[in-house]
């Protein structure tokens, strides 16, 4: 997984440790909620507004420096736009794997001591 620590480091510099921790944890929770909503939608074969929700995920991931997650969310949007269901399924599975890895509670990039 590719990650840029600078956006999170900037949040910590700007807000201080306690406030930044709350902001970052809230943002990560929002990413998790968005992924769960996307997964429910895909599971139900409800593709309405899926592109809009993927775009939102991209923006959130970018804001947190989650490069891989943002890029693959964009790739899923491209597959959706092209109507290629096989590519969509493959890239969707990749997005799920990346999101699981990125949101794992043991990620060292979330360790305050590294920021």
Please give a structural write-up.
This protein is mainly alpha-helical and 115 residues long. It contains 5 helices and no strands. The two termini are 18 Å apart. 20% of the residues are buried.
Helical fraction: over 70%
- The number of distinct β-strands equals 0
Structural class of the secondary structure composition? Answer: mainly alpha
**Global morphology:** elongated
Give the termini distance in whole angstroms.
Answer: 18 Å
Radius of gyration: 15 Å
Question: Which percent band covers the strand fraction?
Answer: under 5%
Largest sheet: none
Order of helices and strands: HHHHH
Individual helix count: 5
Uncertain spans: 109-115
What would the average pLDDT be, to the nearest integer? 90
Write a compact overview of the structure shown:
This protein is mostly helical and 115 residues long.
SSE topology:
Elements (H helix, E strand, L loop, with lengths): L5 H10 L1 H27 L6 H14 L3 H16 L2 H18 L13
Jot down its keywords.
single chain, 115 residues, mainly alpha, 74% helix, 0% strand, elongated, disordered C terminus
């Amino acid at each position: 997984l590719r990650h840029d620590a600078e956006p999170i480091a900037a949040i910590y510099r700007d807000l201080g440790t306690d406030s930044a921790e709350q902001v970052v944890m809230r943002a990560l929770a929002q990413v998790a909620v968005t992924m769960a909503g996307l997964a429910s939608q895909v599971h139900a074969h409800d593709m309405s507004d899926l592109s809009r929700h993927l775009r939102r995920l991209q923006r959130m991931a970018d804001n947190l420096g989650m490069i891989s997650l943002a890029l693959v969310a964009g790739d899923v949007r491209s597959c959706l736009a092209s109507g290629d269901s096989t590519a969509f399924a493959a890239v969707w599975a990749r997005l799920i794997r990346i999101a699981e890895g990125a949101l794992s509670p043991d990620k060292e990039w979330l360790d305050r001591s590294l920021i």
